[in-house]
Specification:
The complex is a heterodimer of chains A (about 290) and B (about 300).
Chain A lengths: L1 H5 L12 H25 L3 H4 L14 H8 L8 H32 L5 H11 L8 H10 L11 H4 L2 H11 L4 H9 L4 H12 L1 H17 L2 H5 L9 H12 L3 H33 L6
Helix pairs in contact in A: 2-15, 4-15, 5-9, 5-12, 5-14, 6-9, 9-12, 12-15, 14-15
Chain B lengths: L1 H9 L1 H27 L2 E2 L7 E2 L3 H8 L2 H34 L3 H12 L6 H11 L7 H8 L13 H14 L4 H11 L3 H9 L5 H12 L1 H17 L3 H6 L12 H11 L3 H26 L4
Antiparallel strand pairs in B: 1-2
Helix pairs in contact in B: 2-15, 4-8, 4-9, 4-12, 9-12, 10-11, 12-15, 14-15
The chains are: A mainly alpha (about 290), B mainly alpha (about 300).
């Protein structure tokens, strides 16, 4: 039996037989992380190092010049960078909060309530997991026009709120909560709203954390809304500004450093949020299976 | 007031569900339906749409030489490599990660998941510096240093390299939610099943994966497959982002998504672009059906 034990998944401690996995995983993770490390170093390089030949990976004299230039730079229409950043923060915050609210309540109903059409609704949502937003960007644009959302700040938020993957994960997670818990609350006279707020939401925090990460990533990285639905420069987001920075000034000396600094600002919140919440994400993923 | 309160409580499931349903219909269902409707019309975004039947589809399949010669083969090649490739890689990495203890596993898992957090814009910043066409580009400089080439290569502007680069970058960023789901799936396979399998005659790791691991985590494998398909088609703007132009040089990395944007937002032939969108949605749907038949529970 001892040979069986050494083959076990999820081992408690290091064993020589694991070396072969490290031998593959460590180079792979290095390949995955190198480009990102590279952008981090690039953001702190002074100009002469940015364009040193041969190019250098590490920076020897880190400087904050790129960030300073980024924040003092204004676009042709005189919108300061801080304004784009502010727009991004506000729209992302609202997107995450509303997505959580909408997904939690819909997930609760689809999981624990019985009514006609429930299964159909969930099937449609499961089909919508395959939805590729870029594929229907044109009709989506037309819907936004019809709703009068062009040049409206809500155009950043509303299209992202219905998130089929989020609803799917939350619903699967709520399925694991025993019905008796809800029945007990019902006997005590609690309404559905009360049960949702006081029983369900505290119990599904891992799933909600996962949805928060996904919603954050979608909203924070989105350039679609700024590029297509918003013409007013002062309402556009940081991701969009970065996109213009890359395409118009990407090849100039100052531009490359600024683009790297902007990339870092784009990336760090994603990373920090994920690291803080990763154990909850893994808890959610246990129930993520499709049947 | 009382009546209203009563109504809200009696229909609480619709009250709670309606925000999602409304938003879902507005931004997912209606766009999909209108894409289908628009695809039968000529629509230039200025005049009202004019019904022209199947003409868009016919010209897409018979007259659009760029679509048939470049876009469709590119899309198929890209989807076949990045989709199953990224998917198989995520499973292999997830399985290997499950074989090592928790602390290094968490650390390496985060590193592997990192690239999928980067957006298209950020990816193009990173990779366009690495593949930059002058000798300051990291790849060029490296290759000159080791003597493989003498002249810098225009990686992102040469049709013969662009597609390969796009595929590498797409694979690099393909370990997303599906990868995390598979990792959780491998970790939660009932360990007694392995013992039982050994008693039944399984003798090596490969058989263990085929007969125990994959069957026990079919639901996660299916979820991972659907996520891989979606990821494949959402990252397909990469070619345009890297080359900096739509269409890409000589249509080398032109995919259906880029073709749709080209016709929709550059030439304003919305009806035609909608027809291409429908073709894309059908491709995604077929791919998902295939993975469903591979991993779905048959009952």
């Amino acid at each position: 039996m001892s040979s069986l034990k050494s083959r076990r998944i999820n081992p408690d401690k290091f064993h020589k037989s694991q070396l072969k996995f490290y031998a593959i995983l460590i180079p792979v993770s290095a390949f995955m992380v190198l480009p990102i490390l590279f952008i981090i170093f690039h953001a702190f390089k002074p100009i002469d190092e940015l364009f040193a030949y041969p190019p250098r990976f590490f920076t020897t004299r880190p400087t904050l010049d790129n960030f300073k230039r980024l924040f003092t730079a204004t676009t042709e229409s005189n919108v300061p960078v801080s304004r784009y950043l502010f727009n991004s923060v506000v729209s992302t915050l609202f997107t995450v909060l509303f997505t959580l609210w909408v997904t939690a309540s819909a997930g609760y109903v689809l999981s624990k309530k019985n009514f006609k059409g429930k299964d159909t609704l969930f099937t449609i949502n499961t089909l919508a997991l395959m939805f590729v937003p870029v594929a229907v960007s044109i009709p989506r644009f037309l819907v936004i026009v019809k709703l009068g959302l062009i040049d409206n700040f809500f155009a950043h938020i509303l299209p992202l709120l219905a998130m089929p993957v989020g609803l799917f994960l939350v619903k699967q997670f709520i399925d694991q909560i025993p019905n008796s818990l809800i029945e007990a609350a019902k006997i005590d006279g609690a309404s559905d709203y009360y049960i949702l707020m006081k029983v369900i939401i505290p119990l599904i925090k891992p799933a909600l954390s996962t949805v928060a990460i996904l919603a954050f990533q979608t909203s924070w990285n989105s350039i679609e809304s700024s590029a297509m639905f918003i013409n007013d420069e002062s309402l556009k987001t940081f991701a969009f500004y970065m996109n213009t920075l890359v395409s118009t000034t990407g090849n100039t000396v100052a531009g490359q450093g600024m683009a790297a600094a902007a990339s870092l600002i784009m990336f760090l919140p994603n990373l920090i949020l994920f690291i803080i919440l990763q154990s909850r994400v893994m808890d959610t993923m246990m129930y993520s299976g499709l049947k | 007031m009382k009546v209203k309160q009563k109504f809200i409580n009696r229909n609480s499931h619709w009250v709670l569900l309606s925000p999602y349903i409304i938003l879902f219909c507005l931004f997912i269902l209606i766009p999909v339906i209108s894409a289908a409707v628009l695809s039968f019309t000529y629509f230039n975004a200025v005049q009202p749409p004019k019904f022209i039947g199947l003409k868009n589809y016919i010209s897409l399949l018979t007259q659009d030489t760029v679509f048939m010669q470049k876009v469709l083969p590119n899309t198929i090649k890209y989807a076949l490599i990045v989709g199953p490739g990224g998917y198989i890689l995520s499973f292999i990495f997830a399985w290997m990660l499950a074989q090592i203890p928790k602390t290094p596993r968490t650390f390496i898992a985060i590193l592997i998941y990192l690239p999928s957090m980067t957006s298209g814009v950020m990816m193009s910043t990173i990779w366009s510096i690495i593949f930059s066409g002058n000798q300051l580009g990291y790849l060029n400089s490296f290759l000159i240093e080791i003597g493989m080439i003498t002249e810098p290569i225009q990686w992102l502007q040469s049709p013969e390299y662009l597609m390969t680069i796009v595929i590498i970058v797409a694979l690099w960023s393909s370990m997303g939610v599906g990868f995390l789901a598979m990792l959780a799936g491998v970790l939660n396979v009932n360990e007694e099943l392995y013992d039982a399998a050994y008693i039944d005659g399984v003798s090596n790791r490969f058989q263990e994966i085929i007969y125990v691991t994959i069957p026990s985590m079919k639901p996660q494998m299916l979820f991972g497959a659907v996520m891989a398909i979606v990821n494949t088609f959402t990252t397909s703007g990469l070619g345009v982002a890297l080359a900096g132009s739509n269409p890409t040089p000589q249509y080398a990395a032109q995919l259906i998504v880029n073709h749709i944007e080209d016709y929709g937002f550059i030439r304003y032939e919305m009806g035609y672009a909608a027809a291409a969108s429908v073709v894309l949605l059908i491709i995604v749907w077929i791919a998902s059906r295939v993975s469903w038949s591979l991993f779905g529970e048959k009952d």
